[in-house]
Amino acid sequence: MMNQTFLVLIALLTLTGPTANQALAAPSSRPAAARSNSAQTPDTEKPPTAETPADKAPADEAPPPTEEPQRTGPLPGATDTSPPVHKPTVLYGVGLNYQFLIVPQFFLKAFTEAAKSSGHNLYRHTFGAHFVRRKKHLDIIVRLMFGFMMGSSDDGNWLGRGHEWDELDYTEFHNLNFLWADATFIYHWQVAKGLFLGLGGGIGLGWVMGSVYTTSSSLNGTGAPCNGSNYSNCSQCHPSGAVCDKNGCHRSSLENNPDRDKSNKVPPVIPALNGVFSVRYDFWRHMSARLSTGIFLPGFWSLETSVEWVF
């Protein structure tokens, strides 16, 4: 009986062995599965990722202050203590001049009965430098000038106003030049940017250089007086013994003439007077050009151009 009971127990263990093992193993596998499922969270349930400060500043944090541009001038309401920019009211400068002088025949006729020929005019060139003082609209210009006044081309028969024809002289001009200095005051009116019109005048003193020689001249050198119709033709009206053509006589033929004298009627010093109308253009603050015209004595009419640098 006991043997049968033992065999039945063996059979039951044989049949229920795997199931029992599974029952024993199940409790341990289920918690593992639960742990596995709890470790995995569905995508829809993922918590939002935390934003970095660079992405979004906290709501309670103030934005960084903006940098203001640096002030260069005085603060509003403050007194400017910087020294003012000073522009000189008086400018000084130097310049170069060219002057063209014209002495027309009608002006010569005012002082002479005969002036080489009835159509003789004087055209002369002068050069020099100047110093200028400029204050507002007034320019004070001091010039030093040199001019070629009369030369061999002006040699001929000349007769002063109020003299008789028998006093006619053949006159030689040996390098008769003029060196002078003058001061001119010119007031300007501005008519456009950099453009000024000026009006003024000046006075100076000059030194006459060179020599003048005169030789008595007569009709064909015979002593008979010439007249207004033939004095300009030196082949008809000339000193005795001179070799001449219609335009003049050879100086070498006059050197030993007993009637030839060095004139002492030319003053060594004479005044220089001028009245000018000018146009001045300032290229910039330190450089100007000027064109002037007007009366100039000795002479008659002048046309002058100059350029100057002022500081």
Descriptive labels:
single chain; 311 residues; mainly beta; Porin; 8-stranded antiparallel β-barrel; two-stranded antiparallel ribbon; 2 helices; 15 strands; 46% strand
Describe it.
With about 300 residues, the protein is mostly beta strands. It has a domain at about 90-215 and about 260-310: Porin (Beta Barrel). It has two helices and 15 strands. It has helices at about 1-40, 105-110, and strands at about 90-105, 110-115, 120-135, 140-150, 155-160, 170-190, 195-215, 220, 235-240, 245, 250, 260, 270-285, 285-295, 300-310. The strands form three sheets. An eight-stranded antiparallel beta barrel has the order 1-3-4-6-7-13-14-15. The chain has a two-stranded antiparallel ribbon with strand order 8-9. It has a two-stranded antiparallel ribbon with strand order 10-11. A hairpin with a 2-residue loop joins β13 and β14 (about 285-295). The radius of gyration is 58 Å and the shape is rod-shaped. It starts with a helix and ends with a strand. The relative contact order is 0.13.
